[in-house]
């Protein structure tokens, strides 16, 4: 225990009173129900969030004393660690928490190792055995904390942003692209250009761009696929530099002729976070950072007004009206890198699009098809992928606007009983073989990654996990993409033939072949249920930019309204 504690990085937070920007919230859930031998504790916890360090301290105040080894701290981004395993604690697995016991999570904490961001939700889950998790407290960072930062328009004005926070809601946003660089095939989504002495390669969970200290003339990465330049879109990139001084790193958008970059510069006289390119030229937004931690940057682009309206760096928000006139055509690419003199890790890239009524009305549901959807569904941008019951099965790529199949893709697995998209690859579960298959939608390459427990029917991806339903035992299994089982829970006696699973807004939507849809929390608690279809011969369901979509009794694609 002491050996693990000794590697805890410096700077663990202390009392809330010494924090800048500390937000404290008290949370109490009433316990008492049985969890297979032990009652759920009736406990009170406080949550103290420190915005600058992106750390959250959890304190047990009073009530029933939870056992440390049974208490998990879970993030909506997928991280989960038992209380006693954190580097910020000093208790054993069998210890009971005493009043005032604290645990801190954040980028410097052993066994957590990542920032707690404004858009996260943290849960305390009590799990004395493998089959009976229960949420006993939760904390929504976004609703508890608010940051407003005054922008700077030039290098002469570089005032430190105030710690008045404005939450940025994820509601009304559609994720149209995401890459977490976790599958060693980044070249299927990006074109790479590197010089002789430069390295661009994928590590375990990020992409490394290592470039010598020679100004300019560096390589870059550009998205293979172009994205429609319309409406309001937000490009979000999580990245970190390995050195506090650098020539420049960042990301941007381009249509081939015009590039607009958000770039950090911190070398000699350069000390700025800048927007570069477009009609307005170079504009300093803020001073550069010396942080070598993972930072989340974003550009909010209004393609209708031809302006960049907002820049963010972690919790700091800078309003702007950076003009790029009408220089963009109807589409754009994302580009990373390009500068030199750095070692930069890119951890994720995501595009969010503002949801409008027009977006909702562009597709008329149900989407009527000649083919009958019987297996799985997945949505990738404005296309729907569906497993079609054929001889053998195949994947149909569907244009829902035209109600037609614009591409057919062969698969070797004849019984594809579920499908989902993880931001770069499709995942298919095979009911007969129990195989969990990774499928590249661009190249058609397949690989069996692992075998699931039981009889898989339905799979969803979210929170960095694959959620697979077992049709006979009526259980949900949570797996990492490496095949390691993270958790499991029963989905109740209500479901008789649960054959479809979708991950939607931090919940699991389970579709029974009797036409009932059940909404579960990731702890296994029923949040909602409704009979939506009848006479189903399959149970395909998925989360998409149009909400939750599912195969109806006629084999067409319909939208589930709960």
As for the number of domains, it is 3
CATH topology of the largest domain: Jelly Rolls
CATH class of the largest domain: Mainly Beta
In whole angstroms, how far apart are the ends? 48 Å
Oligomer: single chain
The helical percent reads: under 10%
Largest sheet: 8 strands, antiparallel
Q: What integer value in Å does the Rg equal?
A: 24 Å
| Strand content bin | over 45%
In the CATH hierarchy, the architecture of the largest domain is: Sandwich
- What coarse outline follows from CA principal-axis ratios? globular
Structural class comes to mainly beta
Number of strands: 45
Average per-residue pLDDT, rounded, comes to: 78
Low-confidence stretches: 1-22, 28-37, 146-172, 357-361
Q: List the total number of helices.
A: 3
Q: What report would you give on this structure?
A:
With 562 residues, this protein is an all-beta fold. The protein has three domains: 2-144, no CATH class; 148-162 and 170-357, Jelly Rolls (Sandwich); 362-559, 6 Propeller (Neuraminidase), CATH 2.120.10.30. Helix content is 2%, strand content 48%. It has three helices and 45 strands. The strands form ten sheets. Strands 11, 13, 14, 17, 22, 23, 24 and 26 form an eight-stranded antiparallel β-sheet that branches. The longest helix has 5 residues, at 357-361. The protein is globular and about 65 Å long.
